[in-house]
């Protein structure tokens, strides 16, 4: 067979006339593989993976096992649990109450996410236009709202919407002459979720505002000035110039808000304890709590929890895939 000779690397003249040989292109992928390879990243991630497995993976495995068992209060005190297969899942999926709670939770989360994102973006745009002193003042206010525990915030807002001593009823009835004297905001499901939406959006807007504001600072001023010189108004500059920079950030923040609002518990349960009707205002988090600890049916509660986990995993998978795609660009 004829011997095939590889082409020699091209020679390049140096500064002193010395002949230099350019490196072969095949050397770069090997060097990149050597730089990215090795066991060091896995060794650094091992402690975090062990803690994550101990705190999340093992309880999740126990939850899945419990969802296939008849597990009640008797099993809590030592009676062996009986394996019933998919009986708990069939009971959950054929229960109309589960579907009502699921649809109610999805609608509630959708309203909260839309309001949170819109208000968060508007606050971020406001912070971008404010001076240093006013921006600092707004940032401190947002941090205080964000740092307040959900239970404390719910108690404070509960006093604002209180039937007899609430400041909102006083303002609406005394200042505006509206018939809100002694009005109960938590008895009707519509007004109950109005109060819950206010509390949840109030606590979630700071995170969105700070995140979007950080993204706005990365938009080049030269691009904005060029668009303004071309005659683009404020709306067009935001839609055509700013949005392409913020779209990956907004996608990730929106997915996080959907996950958080779907599993909200503290605000709904606290408002129900103040005066709301539980049967008409349950969301997924509270419904799981009442089925498991309230009724003592931990097997059915575990099945509902597994279904919610699968829903959140689907959303998280989209979030992780989006994040990896952004990192590889």
From TrEMBL:
* Cell compartment(s), UniProt: Cell membrane
Do you know which Pfam families this protein is assigned to?
BPD_transp_1
* Keyword Transport attributed: yes
**Topology relative to the membrane:** Multi-pass membrane protein
Q: Name one GO cellular component term.
A: plasma membrane
The molecule here is called Sugar ABC transporter permease
Q: Which InterPro entries match?
A: MetI-like, MetI-like_sf, UgpAE/MalFG_permease
Chain ranges passing through the membrane: 42-61, 106-126, 138-160, 192-216, 237-260, 298-320
Output the SUPFAM superfamilies linked to this UniProt entry.
MetI-like
Q: Give one GO biological process term.
A: transmembrane transport
């Amino acid at each position: 067979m004829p011997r095939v000779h590889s082409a020699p690397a091209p020679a390049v003249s140096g500064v002193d006339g010395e002949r230099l040989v350019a490196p072969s292109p095949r050397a770069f992928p090997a060097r990149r593989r050597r730089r990215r390879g090795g066991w060091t990243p896995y060794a650094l991630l091992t402690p975090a993976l062990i803690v994550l497995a101990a705190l999340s993976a093992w309880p999740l495995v126990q939850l899945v096992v419990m969802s296939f068992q008849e597990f009640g209060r008797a099993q809590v005190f030592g009676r062996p649990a009986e394996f019933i297969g998919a009986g708990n899942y069939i009971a959950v999926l054929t229960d109309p109450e589960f579907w009502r709670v699921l649809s109610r939770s999805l609608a509630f989360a959708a309203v909260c996410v839309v309001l949170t994102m819109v208000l968060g973006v508007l606050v971020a745009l406001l912070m971008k236009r404010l001076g240093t002193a006013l921006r600092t003042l707004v940032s401190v206010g947002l941090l205080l709202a964000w740092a307040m525990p959900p239970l404390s915030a719910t108690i404070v807002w509960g006093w604002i919407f209180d039937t007899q001593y609430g400041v909102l009823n006083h303002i609406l009835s005394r200042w505006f002459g509206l018939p809100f004297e002694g009005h109960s905001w938590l008895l009707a499901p519509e007004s109950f979720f109005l109060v819950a939406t206010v509390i949840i959006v109030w606590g979630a807007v700071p995170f969105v505002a700070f995140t979007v504001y950080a993204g706005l600072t990365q938009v080049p001023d030269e691009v904005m000035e060029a668009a303004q010189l071309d005659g683009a108004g404020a709306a067009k500059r935001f839609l055509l110039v700013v949005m392409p920079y913020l779209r990956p950030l907004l996608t990730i923040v929106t997915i996080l808000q959907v996950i958080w609002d779907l599993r909200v518990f503290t605000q709904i349960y606290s408002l129900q304890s103040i005066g709301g009707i539980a049967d008409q205002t349950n969301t997924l988090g509270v419904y799981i709590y009442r089925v498991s600890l309230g009724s003592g049916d931990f097997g059915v509660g575990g099945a509902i929890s597994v279904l919610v986990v699968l829903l959140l995993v689907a959303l998280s998978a989209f979030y992780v895939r989006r994040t990896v795609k952004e990192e590889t660009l």
